[in-house]
Structures are given as structure tokens and as C-alpha cells.
Design goal:
Helix content: over 70%
Largest sheet: 2 strands, antiparallel
CATH architecture: Orthogonal Bundle
Shape: globular
Structural class: mainly alpha
Radius of gyration: 23 Å
Number of domains: 1
Distance between the termini: 40 Å
């Protein structure tokens, strides 16, 4: 009887947590298809409309430009951060040099600095360089944010790879780069893919730096949501439609690479 009660209690708790987590997301999706009048109603009986998605892509909202900015910034950040972080993670994992642990701690310590503390130095630096309101500025900032995190993740996966095959390849005359390309990277591919996903998500959802460093030309999707606060109040139906545009790509990406994502999350857990 105790085991049965515990089973039902676990299921009830899971259902409760699922409802708490999924309810705001489901309500956002419903509101995205509501008219302005129905957006303020709690009733589920309404006539769906796609006008909100058409409106957010037209003037003055121009969500298409923000989508393009977010895609470019997130993609370029991943393409630069992941290869550089992979090489750095391999160096931290395989080379036993003096001060290695301190240097690795120094890299990770950047993750403990609140973003609001360093946003002003970035703003002043980019203003002097003439890079305010540009995608280049956002890419540089996001690289500084995500690269230490990606190094830490990939290093855990590389640590779990035995060194026997690498040593045998180098004895046969293979260079270090050849060993990394032909042996380490294929084995660590699930972990690297997982790190790339996290890198993309962190960049895609970044808000504070985009809010401070952009004005018009390089505004990203999260910052674009602020534009839906007008003199007549919050345009919840348009804000929800834009929120769907932010959320759907992440959901689709998670579904397409779910198997690799799961393998990557567990690859570095056991040596």
C-alpha cells in the first residue's frame, strides 16, 4: 500500500510541475492567435486569427529584421565559439603545463561576473570603436559570454575519452591536429553538438547586452518584445506572436537533435 501511494504521489507531483511549467507557454501560444479584444479574456472560446503574425512583420514592428539579426548573431557566435572552445578544452584536458588549473579557473571565473557590471565598459569601448548598434558588437559580447561556458562543457567530454588511441596515432607519425581531427572530435561529437546547442540558445535569448548596445539596426528578437509596450498598454497578442517566433526555433532544434542531445549530456558524466 505504501508503494502504491508513493507511486501515485510521484505521478501527481509530476503532473503538477508539468502544468506549472507548461501553462504559461500554452497560454502564450493561445494568445498569439487571439484578436486584441480576446487577448484580455480568460475564455478559451475564441476565433483563431493569423493577423498578429502578419502585423508583427509589417511596419512599424518589422520583426523580420530582428529575426535576421538574431539568426546571424547566434549562428556566427556558434561557428566561432565552438571550434575555438574545442581546441582550448583539448589543451586544458591533455597538456600538463604549470598554472593550468589556475588558468582554467580564471576562464571559468568570468561566468561569475554579473552582466550588469560589465555592460558599461562594453558600451564605452564599442562607442569609441564606432560599433554600437552593429551585429559585430553583439557577436563579440556573446563570444565573451558563451566561450568559457563551452570550454568547460567540452573539456568534460574530452576528459572522458581514453588517451590510448591518441598516443598510438602519434607514435605512427600523426600530428597533434590530425589526432584531434580524426580521433578526438568524432568521439566527442555528441558533447560538442550539445555545447553548440547551449551556445546557440544562450545567444538567441540574450537580452541585456542587446538592449544596451543596440538602437535600431541590430535589434534582436528578445529586445524587440519591448517595442510592444505602447501608449495604449501592452499589446499582448503581438507580444505573444513574437514570443512564438522566439520559442518555436528552439523547440524544433531540440526535437531534431534530441538523440544527440541526450548522448551529449551523458557523455561526459562517466569516465
Amino acid at each position: 500500500m505504501k508503494r502504491i501511494l508513493l507511486w501515485w504521489a510521484e505521478r501527481a507531483l509530476l503532473v503538477l510541475v508539468s502544468v506549472i511549467v507548461l501553462f504559461p507557454i500554452a497560454w502564450m501560444f493561445l494568445t498569439a492567435f487571439k484578436s486584441p479584444r480576446d487577448a484580455y479574456s480568460l475564455s478559451l472560446n475564441f476565433t483563431p486569427t493569423f493577423n498578429n503574425f502578419v502585423t508583427v512583420f509589417s511596419h512599424p514592428w518589422n520583426l523580420g529584421d530582428m529575426v535576421l539579426n538574431s539568426v546571424v548573431v547566434a549562428s556566427v557566435t556558434v561557428l566561432i565559439a565552438v571550434p575555438c572552445a574545442s581546441l582550448a578544452a583539448y589543451s586544458f584536458s591533455r597538456f600538463r603545463v604549470r598554472g593550468r588549473k589556475f588558468l582554467f579557473f580564471l576562464v571559468l571565473s568570468t561566468q561569475f561576473i554579473p552582466a550588469v557590471v560589465i555592460v558599461l565598459p562594453f558600451f564605452l569601448m564599442f562607442r569609441q570603436l564606432g560599433l554600437l548598434d552593429t551585429r559585430i558588437a553583439l557577436i563579440i559580447v556573446n563570444l565573451a559570454i558563451v566561450t568559457p561556458f563551452v570550454i568547460w562543457m567540452i573539456k568534460g567530454y574530452i576528459d572522458a575519452i581514453p588517451t590510448d588511441s591518441e598516443e598510438a596515432a602519434m607514435i605512427d607519425g600523426a600530428s597533434r591536429l590530425r589526432v584531434i581531427w580524426d580521433i578526438v572530435l568524432p568521439v566527442a561529437a555528441p558533447g560538442i553538438l550539445t555545447s553548440a546547442i547551449f551556445c546557440f540558445i544562450l545567444t538567441w535569448n540574450e537580452f541585456l547586452f542587446s538592449l544596451i548596445l543596440t538602437r535600431r539596426d541590430a535589434v534582436t528578437l528578445p529586445v524587440g518584445l519591448v517595442n510592444f509596450r505602447t501608449e495604449r498598454g501592452d499589446l499582448w497578442e503581438l507580444m505573444s506572436a513574437a514570443g512564438v517566433m522566439i520559442t518555436v526555433p528552439i523547440f524544433i532544434m531540440a526535437l531534431l537533435i534530441q538523440k544527440h542531445f541526450t548522448r551529449g549530456m551523458t557523455a561526459g558524466a562517466v569516465k
